[in-house]
Design brief:
about 110 residues, mainly beta, Jelly Rolls, nine-stranded antiparallel beta sheet, 9 strands, about 0% helix, RmlC-like_jellyroll
């Protein structure tokens, strides 16, 4: 077992997905996810990409995100908007509710703890 895992999707086939239809607000957002590592206790790390669109999000997990490219707006249910773009890092905590709107195809690195 490796004790250092590079977050790199060379040789990793992406999983394709989309938000559940009832969560989509606008557009036809499509996802690609390269899960590069996982560990006991529900920890995952990799790269995620989404095409333009807007959908509702609800987090039960903890997620660290680092935006690699693109632009998105993440809006909390109370109306507070967070504009994110390449170079931005943030954490979405369990209980976060709101929307994710991809303005330009967005790619992020992530670490999720269930």
């Amino acid at each position: 077992m490796k004790n250092l895992v590079k977050i790199d999707f060379d040789g990793v086939d992406p999983e394709h997905g989309a938000p559940k239809p009832e969560r989509v607000i606008s557009g036809d957002p499509q996802f690609r996810t390269w899960n590069c590592d996982e560990a006991e206790g529900g920890i995952y790390a990799g790269i995620w990409e989404a095409t333009p669109g807007k959908w509702r999000i609800a987090y039960d997990e903890w997620e660290f995100c680092h935006i690699l490219s693109g632009r998105s707006v993440i809006t909390e249910d109370d109306g507070v908007e967070h504009h994110v773009e390449a170079g931005d890092s943030f954490v979405l905590r369990p209980g976060f509710r709101g929307t994710w709107e991809v303005l330009e195809t967005t790619r992020k690195e992530y670490v999720i703890k269930l």
